[in-house]
Amino acid sequence: MRADILDPIVMGVVNVTPDSFSDGGEWLDPAMAIAHGRDLVTQGANILDIGGESTRPGADPVSEREELRRVVPVIEGLAGAGARLSIDTSKAAVAAAAIDAGATIVNDVTALRGDPEMAALVAAAGCDVCLMHMLGEPRTMQRDPRYGDVVDDVKAFLAARLAFAVDTGIAAERVWLDPGIGFGKTIDHNLELLARLHEIVALGRPVVVGTSRKSFLGTITGRDDAADRVPGTIATNVLALARGARVFRVHDVAQARDALLVAAATLRGRWAPATKTSTTTTSTTSSTTRTAESRPS
Ligand code: HH2
């Protein structure tokens, strides 16, 4: 029995991009993106992660103006939809506009290295921030990535970025950490990070895992179509939960949510019925009560 297993938090992906690796172009129209976000909330998303720039291997950068044009109307349209809103950006101006429009989480795949203004913005806003590991940058990151020991290296990087965040005035309780599955990693790097995820969890901050539909799942299963990688996504999410991960960034919310709720109850050897039915789960181990302001701590 695992009393230490906290309620999983499901972060649904809303990509307002023409070129994302698995759903590029599907939600580029703001009305379509807003409808998709609302649908993900209905499916059980606790957080919606809205992004206007693809970070897939080889992706070209997007201008600030274009990124703002893509994401701000979508965040405005999803404010009050029943989930916390996260902005997936490494640009401070985009994060600032998103926060003004209702976002309360900044998901920065550069871990505050991409824009010198970002750390101060997050500190002043008092929002939550996800710091992700990436080796190199999206255009070139999959060209022969190398580590000493991948888990030790990623853990040391995340510890250093957490210290940097705290030094710039961000409360440690606001920081989430993400090993950056697929960002400058071979298939074996991804698998070793997932197998030893508890070593990252030991840093003491909520760990975010983003395996959803990624290419290493296709390599293992032979599934070329990213939409066919949901079972692989769920396998990694459930195993990550068992190793202490807290937030699961997924495209296929309903399937991931069900699997994670059953996995959490099974690991605990106990199930408590939800007492409220609004849209986001609390961080307690004792129930699946839902509250809009819940966050990992
Ligand atoms: N993965 C992607 C984008 N943002 N953020 C975090 N914290 N962790 C991740 O693993 C992560 C992320 C890539 O997935 P997706 O958004 O579907 O693709 P694209 O970058 O092509 O838009």
Tell me what the structure shows.
By secondary structure, the chain is α/β, with parallel strands linked by helices. It has a single domain (9-268), classed as Dihydropteroate synthase-like (TIM Barrel), CATH 3.20.20.20. It contains ten helices and eight strands. The longest helix is centred in the middle third of the chain and has 18 residues, at 150-167. It is globular, with a radius of gyration of 18 Å. Mean pLDDT is 91; it is low at 276-295. Bound molecules: 6-hydroxymethylpterin-diphosphate. 6-hydroxymethylpterin-diphosphate is lined by residues 13, 15, 17, 20-22, 51, 54-56, 88, 107, 109, 130, 132, 178, 180-181, 208, 210, 249.
Write a compact overview of the structure shown.
The chain is α/β, with parallel strands linked by helices and 297 residues long.
List the helices and strands and how they pair.
Blueprint: E1 9-15, H1 30-43, E2 47-51, H2 64-78, E3 84-88, H3 92-101, E4 105-108, H4 118-125, E5 128-132, H5 150-167, E6 175-178, H6 187-195, H7 197-201, E7 208-209, H8 215-221, H9 230-242, E8 247-250, H10 253-268
Parallel strand pairs: 1-2, 1-8, 2-3, 3-4, 4-5, 5-6, 7-8
Bound molecules: 6-hydroxymethylpterin-diphosphate (HH2).
6-hydroxymethylpterin-diphosphate (HH2) is lined by residues 13, 15, 17, 20-22, 51, 54-56, 88, 107, 109, 130, 132, 178, 180-181, 208, 210, 249.
